[in-house]
Request: fold
Amino acid sequence: MKLFEYEAKKIFREFGIPVSPYRVISSPGEGLEFFRENSPAVIKAQVLTGGRGKAGGIKTASTEEEYLEKVSGLLGSAVKGFPVKKLLIEKKLDIRREVYTGFGIDRLRGDILFILSAEGGVDIEELAARSPSLVIRKRIDILEGFSPERASSAVKEAGFEAAEAEQITDTAIKLYELFIKFECRLAEINPLAVTSSGEVIAADARVDIYDEAAPGFPEFIKDESETELESRARAAGLGYVQLSGNIGVIGNGAGLNMATLDILTHFGGRPANFLEVSGRTYHKASEAIDIVISNPAVKVIFGNFFGCISRCDVIAEGLAAAAARGAVSVPMVISMRGTGAEEGVETLKKAGFREIYSDDIEAGRRAAELSRGGS
Amino acid sequence: MPVLIDSSTGIMVSGITGREGTFHAERMIASGARVLCGVTPGKGGKVHLGVPVYDTVAEAAENHKIDACGIFVPARAARDAVDEASAAGIGFIVVITEGICPHDTLRFISAARRRGVRVIGPNTPGILTPGESKIGVLASEAVEKGRVGVISRSGTLTVEICHYLLRQGYGQSTVVGLGGDPVVGSNFTDIYRLFEEDDDTDAVVIVGEIGGGMEEDLAGYVRENSPGKPLAAFIAGRCAPEGKRLGHAGAIIEGGKGSAESKIKALEEAGVRVARVPWETAEIVRDMLG
Reply:
């Protein structure tokens, strides 16, 4: 669950991490009074994606005319395909130095990683790859925590002067507390600005909370779907990702689904989506058909099922129900094996499905062939 | 001897009286698993599926010699259940539960690491030694005893790969699911090293997928320790769209790892043949073993 910058800055304030005064607006008429008191100001599109500055989502304004023009230009526009519904307005900082600081998870080692660099900014990833010594990384065992001593020694190692070192250490410790409290995948400040008057201020705020922890923070729960169909699938409890091809895909298990995309591509087909019916959702095959078929690009559906925990007979009943109400309006190729497959195949045959296979080699080849207009 | 579990492994099931626990413990017993007892707080003193149930792991461990345990409790109770098991000295814990917050996983993995306890999962289909024992939810009917070790990050795709191996005439020595969560207790290298030492395993198949860096880590190990056991790989998600992420920390930590290309390149540079589609994995094994 990704947080908008304005949401992240709200919790930064609660944790005592310094941020500039800001306003959040959602219509062009708002925020003018705040702007007058804080000009020149930065106007930032609130979108859940990185690289928005480079994509034109951040503007500055020093006059009222400029402010009104930039605000109305950004609101309602799209940044990297994400619609801009809100803007964050804040006083432009007089930045002397841009620092990077953040916490993330080292999945391979099972630890938290503290990352700090005196040379922050938008090119931090390139810097980390090119000059790893300029990016300090410290491993944190979650049960040991992140002591002020370790924070302070990492800040010294990164080469900060005494005056700013203390503020950066303090910010890092608070950011770690936030990272733990909100059960984050990521908490990051880039840039952490050192101003010409020597203040250290979080100029940006990136927080990504693990979905499993989201129910604990209901105020931030939002629909992050990028298309209407993804949103509908989400509401139905199905994992759906829209792609650009014309073969609708339904499968049980995320791994098998990914392999199904690889199989179709192998045979020259182009998948139109990724849709998982497994675990608690495997009986929802009927709803899954509706979602897949709602994409007008879909010319054929490929259902790839290997009964394991999710049973093929249950999935087949869902598909049969969809067929009975006339929802399967394009050819459907099905590969079905494993637990419940025998019963499942009987159900499918009775429901009028013709293209049923016992493995995904022939089925994948056939689906790709039909998608190219074969008969 | 097979890796990690065989017919002599004494098993405890945590959450045995729950719906999931009951359903799968019954199937574990049917596949030969030596299930000694179960634990469900508040249900101590009962007999369930023919084995005694205890309130705490400590009590269970006093009454039985427990080698391994399977965790089937709901996500919110999982951290305590794993901590209790590792504190009681159970050396091998398989966490089936899905939906655990990765911060909880970091905590129980850290505690287990200090105690020298091996954890597999969470969100794993478990481990299965055909004809001998199983902990978890893998379908026994989809595998047969043989001499190929399988290590997988997936559930259903594991069974798919075993299906194609069987079609080429290769059964499995042990099938190990590592779990689909961002943070898991054991990775490919940990388990591959066990298969390397195992006289009953002639070749190893890994089923990887996009994300994380454990395939690259195994490639590094294989490059430095060749020749090891014959190894074939399939990496799912070559054609999957790249996930959109926020911020830079993930990219800095992974340093270019994580994509299918990165994994395939690392493995191939280490001399491992990588299948492009699931059934090719079995063909590679046939080429290697003849």
Summary: Chain B touches chain A through 65 residues (CB under 8 Å). The longest strand of chain B covers residues 145-152. Residues 143-289 of chain B form a domain with the Rossmann fold fold (CATH 3.40.50.261).
